[in-house]
Amino acid sequence: MIRSLFGELRSKVAGKGIKIVFPEGNDERVVRAAARLKFEGLVDPIILGEADQVKNLLKQFGFADQNYTIINPNTYPDFDKMKELFLEIRKGKATPEVAEKLLRDVNYFGVMLVKMGLADGMVSGAIHSTADTVRPALQIIKTKPGISRTSGVFLMNRENTNERYIFADCAINIDPEAQELAEIAVNTAETAKIFDIDPQVALLSFSTKGSAKAPQAEKVQEAAKIAKELAPDLA
Q: How far apart are CA 93 and CA 102, in angstroms?
């Protein structure tokens, strides 16, 4: 029996009232996706943007008959409270003027909603770069204890099969050291479990079984050794 990835994810989140911030409320694709998720009872979206613009898009897509949380960062009533918390988090790394400017940015604003417990997560990157999406999260929420850096993954589900693969890091880290590569491998195995993948970890380079001698290949070999030490129970 072939398992449906999206079917499994739906069953995990349906009816739980999970609040997700969608900062890019001026993008038609984002608004349509957020509205559909709400219509199907999967997510309670918080859409950032001009209320009239967002409502017009919802009406255009035929989803205007539901109640949506739409927030404009420029008119948010608790903005001063948010700015005060942001300054506390940044501890001298941002002036009040800089904080004011940053929090008008929808990605910073959205991450602060998560930090304040007003949302469970944020989805961004449709019209923003990876850097613009990740930077606010690193500055405000930061990484888990013991994690030196964040990393990205691609989830591949082979069509009409139960084969699933996760590739990391294909989006954020340009040239990680062996220790960092090992950490990424172990963290990615934990990510795999979220998607019901029993992780079997491989670290790849251009060298097939040591056929090529080069610092880049040796780094990957060293990373594999470190990863085994960090997580000896992983395959």
A: 12
Percent of the chain scored above 70 by pLDDT? Answer: 99
Among 136, 154, 132, 124, which Cα is nearest to 27's?
Answer: 124
- Give the separation between CA 203 and CA 221, rounded to whole angstroms: 8
Structural tokens at position 26: 């001026």
Q: Provide the whole-model pTM.
A: 0.87
pLDDT digits (tens, 9 = 90+) for 45-89: 999 999 999 999 999 999 888 889 999 999 999 999 999 999 999
Residues 6+ apart with CB under 8 A from 107: 23, 122, 124, 128, 132, 133, 135, 136
Task: Compute the distance between CA of residue 185 and CA of residue 187 in angstroms, rounded to an integer.
Answer: 6
At 70 the three-state DSSP class reads strand
From residue 43, give the alpha-carbon distance in Å to each of 17, 32, 48, 67.
6, 13, 15, 13
CA distances from 147 to 27, 62, 208 (A): 33, 44, 30
| 8 contact partners, CB below 8 Å, separation of at least 6 | 195, 196
Helix (H, G, I), strand (E, B) or coil at 6: helix
Q: How far apart are CA 173 and CA 151, in angstroms?
A: 7
